[in-house]
Amino acid sequence: MTITITAFERSPDGGKGLARDTRVRWALEEVGQPYKVRLVSFHAMKEPAHLALHPFGQIPTYEEGDLALFETGAIVFHIAERHAGLLPDDANARARAITWMFAAVNTVEPPIIELGTARLLEGDKPWNKERLPLVEDRVRGRLHQLSARLSDADWLDGAFSAGDLMMVSVLLRLKSSGILDEFSNLTAYLARGEARPAYKRAFAAQLAVNTGKPTTE
Ligand SMILES: N[C@@H](CCC(=O)N[C@@H](CS)C(=O)NCC(=O)O)C(=O)O
């Protein structure tokens, strides 16, 4: 059955891969599933047709036959459950990998998003100078904990899994923040994720959209 996802017609990041369709593309590339992409404008995202797919008027969405999903955690989980390659066979290891998926979007991503908001959207507010260091420290705190758990391992729990895919995707947003550089094992972890051929294909596909270069999708 054809899989169709939605992505920004023009991503605000200009193709740095931070728009969340990249993580869905990456998951599909890891499991070898072809997919189509429907590009949507900011205007179209708030129109009834898209809101029927995504109640919050965002990207990405995922359609497969009569199934329509939103939320990247749920989408990547669906892909990982249906196709081999992103979740271990052992039941306990599988449960732990799913736990890392939740940890990525529920515990690590929120302070990182908050930092982006504080730096990009609130820079002109009179209180920003006081608030920014607090937000940065909240991110730092989470990274300390994650770094301690990862230690010198390649991946969070044994072999690469959907948990790593989500965690690397979340950390990518910090790449140019300066903060991640304080944690050498996390920068190496990020680099390992980015070096995966499936990630490279996903990144190139979203970049092609944003630079107007022809794509094979
Ligand atoms: N928690 C959602 C977040 C989705 C989200 O924030 N999407 C962004 C693009 S990365 C978006 O559509 N932003 C435009 C908007 O909210 O109007 C997920 O993981 O899918």
Q: Would you give an account of this structure?
A:
The chain contains 9 helices and 4 strands; from the N terminus they run E-H-E-H-H-E-E-H-H-H-H-H-H. It is α+β, with helices and mostly antiparallel strands and 217 residues long. The chain folds into 2 domains: 3-85 and 198-210, 3-Layer(aba) Sandwich (Glutaredoxin); 91-196, Up-down Bundle (Glutathione S-transferase Yfyf (Class Pi), Chain A, domain 2). Strands 2-1-3-4 form a 4-stranded mixed beta sheet. The longest helix is centred in the middle third of the chain and has 31 residues, at 91-121. The radius of gyration is 17 Å and the shape is globular. The two termini are 16 Å apart.
The sequence of SSEs as H and E is EHEHHEEHHHHHH
Strand content: 5-15%
Query: What topology, given as strand order, has the largest sheet?
Result: 2-1-3-4
The backbone outline, from C-alpha atoms, is globular
Tell me about the largest β-sheet: 4 strands, mixed
Number of helices: 9
Give a quick rundown of the structure:
The chain is of the alpha+beta class and 217 residues long. The chain has nine helices and four strands, in the order βαβααββαααααα. The site of glutathione has 8 residues, from loops.
Describe the secondary-structure layout.
Elements: E1 3-8, H1 21-30, E2 36-40, H2 42-45, H3 48-51, E3 61-64, E4 67-70, H4 72-82, H5 91-121, H6 128-150, H7 162-171, H8 184-195, H9 197-211
Parallel strand pairs: 1-2
Antiparallel strand pairs: 1-3, 3-4
Helix pairs in contact: 1-4, 1-7, 1-9, 5-6, 5-7, 7-8
Residues 19-20, 45, 57-59, 71-72 line the site of glutathione (GSH).
